[in-house]
Amino acid sequence: MPLRPALTTATRPQAGLTLVELLVFIMVLGLALAGVLQVFAQATRASANPQAQRQALAIAESLLQEVQLQPFTFCDPDDAAAATATSAAGCATTAEALGPEAGETRYTSPQFDNVNDYHGFAMSGIVDITNTPVAGLSGYSASVQVAPVALKTVPAGDALRITVQVSGPGNTSVTLQGYRTRHAPNAG
Prior knowledge:
alpha+beta, four-stranded antiparallel beta sheet, 1 helix, transmembrane helix, transmembrane, membrane
């Protein structure tokens, strides 16, 4: 039998990576890892925003409900004819108009006592009805606009659109609209 020559390093196939292949692999891996980390960083930044958005929504809902729960009469609720007037002409002293009557505020007596009184109301830093700051909400602001609107079967004088806007940290902004209609005995 013939003898086979022994395999030497020159004739033996090499296993492993060259330096160039290794550098290319590291570069591709680094780029992929950077892309994945960027997605995680963006998700982390965005995850704090929903809390500010939810808080702004809660403030707007609370303020809208506060306004909607107020009376909507032709006369100021302090007027003797407020409960029975079927038009502004039926008021004994003061017919309601957009905006608060002289001296009325949300916080002290005499307080807002009609939906119309909230027109133009604004606060920077959220405070409760007693003007006490609500902890953690100093970075938010809110405003209210009230406007007559005609609904399908309700004339413009008997319906109001209430728009509440709240802004907060991180350019958070929420706008809610609600409606308030006049009910008997004050419906015309």
